[in-house]
Amino acid sequence: MTLNTLTPELLRKINAYWRAANYVSVGQIYLYDNPLLKRPLQLSDIKPLVVSHWGTTPGQNFIYVHLNRVINKYDLDMFYVAGPGHGGPAIVGNVYLEGTWSEVYPDVTQDEAGLKELFKQFSFPGGISSHVAPTTPGSIHEGGELGYSLSHAFGAAFDNPGLIVACVIGDGEAETGPLATSWQSNKFLDPVTDGAVLPILHLNGYKISNPTVLARIEGEELEHFLRGCGWAPLFVEGDDPDTMHERMATVMESAIEDIQRIQANARNEQDPSRPRWPMIVLRSPKGWTGPKVVDGLQIEGTFRAHQVPMLVDPEHPEHVPLLESWMKSYRPEELFDRNGSLIPELAELAPKGDRRMGANPHANGGLLLHDLKMPDFHDHAVRVSAPGAAQACDTQVLGHFLRDVSKLNQGARNFRIFGPDETLSNLLGAVFEVTNRQWDAREVKNDEFLAPQGQVLDSMLSEHQCEGWLEGYLLTGRHGLFNSYEAFIRIIDSMFSQHAKWLKVCLELPWRRKISSLNYLLASHVWQQDHNGFTHQDPGFLDHVINKKADIVRVYLPPDANCLLSVFDHCLRSRNYVNVVVAGKHALPQWLTMDAAVIHCTEGIGIWQWASNDQGGEPDVVMACCGDTPTLEILAAVSILREHLPELRIRVINVVDLMKLQSCTEHPHGLNETDYDSLFTKDKHIIFGFHGYPWLIHRLTYRRTNRNLHVRGYKEEGTITTPFDMRVQNDLDRFHLVMDVIDRLPDLGTRGAYLKQTLRDKLIEHKHYINKHGQDMPEIRNWKWEPREEGEGKAGGDSNGGLGSNSKAVEPHIMRKAS
């Protein structure tokens, strides 16, 4: 490789710009005042608390200036993803030097006063964080957690054919599971319709206090590893600045030209072969250009350069001149004019306008966001002639709706479905009538729905990649959803947390435009795991989600397919939320017509009058439900109570929007106290069937007046068994629910005792039956809701909640309470 890319003059300027970025970075870490060192540095010029990270910063400054050069030379549409956790000084400093920071934050001016403000605000109360954050223009990636930079970069590149995403990966970050897996993302990038990702693996050798694996293996082994992952690595190694600048410039041009060649070959020559995309490996010292030795300990090139390389405080006043010497080594008087502005010959090295990486509109995706073209979800309505009269697989119905969403937005290329090999399993397969799975690796006979281009990305069994891809896709101005088994969405708990935090901070930044919501569809849920068992049972993602800010999170548990359609139509249209929707894929009764479903979902909670019989006065008991399976069991329990205790006044409440239960002072969807009490009463017993862990409902309602709340949900019981037995083991079945009512209403007396004995007998019969036949009893499998008028006798069949024809008769008796 010929190393004569830079003229001596350009080399001098690039090195000077790098020195300026390093100077600004050190200033951010340490200085409170005296930003240009116009007078001798004093301890009072140092921040009282110096907290930051230096080790990765000079390497990232080095990368940034060379990316600026190729952006200018090739007129590239490019932005920067900073993977190393705390590279904040580098990215903030470069965004400032290119002028973007001052445009977004006018109080941080391009002069000495602005430089002082830039330095002071960094890692300072009321200022900005020490890592790359939403406050950093040009960023879509939070530096507070490692592992997702390359996933975000690929998500940004999908459907962006003119974009190159430069992704810097720290060698510590490269040790995480998500990042190690994300090297395989190149098998899903279409060179015709997608953009490109340029990974830059930054090997500086150390984490906080340990060496990094990829920096310590032999160079040949590292190259074999990267080539084995399908990349064509280009290496830049050393510590002499002039030599390294020349090498980096040459390698950077080679990488850009390789990308352009690959894309031209695919787009113009229709070459379908999978390319080996270029990547860069930069090996440079940890804390490059920083202090060599402090207090007899080597700093540069060791783990000691990772954070603050030397303490400068009242306990270490002798370090003040060392800091001054370090900062003066960058010769700031050559870089900034008397007013404190970057001198013109260096400022001209930065790209202009939107070509600046800090100003790239893709990194503020709301600027590019367009509404989805939405089909009319009413067209997919399940016909419900009467509550419970029809059966349907809820997610299968949703799949046909998503098929139409996909079809309508194929031209715009702004909608994708992500999932870890579960789209078909979750019964969303109708989408493959109009699109394919995107896949750029080898195909063999009997593969299904694979193609270089497609709106579904579910061919990689990694929740981390699906989440990271989708986040990158949304953050750059597009729409999508993530479908997953409910239990295994927990794998990305921390990724969800970071995205929710990102959205929360973005709401506080008026220049950050709103993006499309992050939509989760959780299917194959806890109550539908008869063949998978205990390992596939975990509804705890809901508990995790509601910990985040109420301005961000929304949780929906539609009871049937029509409600699911209404909810998902709303979610796909929403902005800046995280929407979690839990829905089943097994055939279950359908309760509401589409018109009724729309009203119910709009309200989020309501009394199901057709299932209640308390219209003439106060209820004796409230039966509440949230989730498809709890709704089924609550209604079956109500049918038993109505059959055997016909004078019992029952109110049935269904909850779609989980956050309705929280107070309106805690969540914008929450009910006020008056509305909550009018639904649930102030003192009547509430038997609540819930999809997830029972204590979540208690947590949401702990401030409410009515303390007579008794929640049944998942309590970590279950194995490979029948669907109904799964509910029995967790006491969510209709028989336990009815017994709970009896226990809470002692005035039922003998009537309750006889019915309770009947239910106990039925539970024993159930156990014997499933052990012998391997399926639930016919009266459970065939049960249907049959409406009856007040005082009407048995309707026959299995309308009595599955007690069957041999159930013991219970003498009706009017229940009266003193008022």
Describe the structure.
This protein is α/β, with parallel strands linked by helices and 819 residues long. The chain is 35% helix and 13% strand. The chain contains 25 helices and 22 strands. A 6-stranded parallel beta sheet has the order 12-9-13-14-16-15, sandwiched between helices. Strand 15, helix 17 and strand 16 form a beta-alpha-beta unit. The termini are far apart.
Produce the secondary structure layout.
Elements: H1 8-30, H2 57-74, E1 77-82, H3 88-97, H4 100-104, H5 112-121, H6 149-157, E2 163-170, H7 177-182, E3 196-203, H8 213-216, H9 219-228, E4 231-237, H10 241-268, E5 277-283, E6 293-294, E7 297-298, H11 320-328, H12 344-347, E8 390-393, H13 394-408, E9 415-418, E10 437-438, E11 450-451, E12 456-457, H14 463-475, E13 479-485, H15 493-506, E14 518-523, H16 541-545, E15 553-556, H17 561-573, E16 578-582, E17 587-590, H18 594-603, E18 605-607, E19 621-626, H19 628-644, E20 650-655, H20 673-680, E21 685-690, H21 694-701, E22 709-712, H22 723-729, H23 734-744, H24 749-773, H25 778-781
Parallel strand pairs: 1-2, 2-3, 3-5, 4-5, 9-12, 9-13, 10-11, 13-14, 14-16, 15-16, 19-20, 19-21, 21-22
Antiparallel strand pairs: 6-7, 8-17, 18-20
Helix pairs in contact: 1-2, 1-3, 1-5, 1-10, 2-3, 2-10, 6-14, 13-17, 17-18, 19-23, 23-24
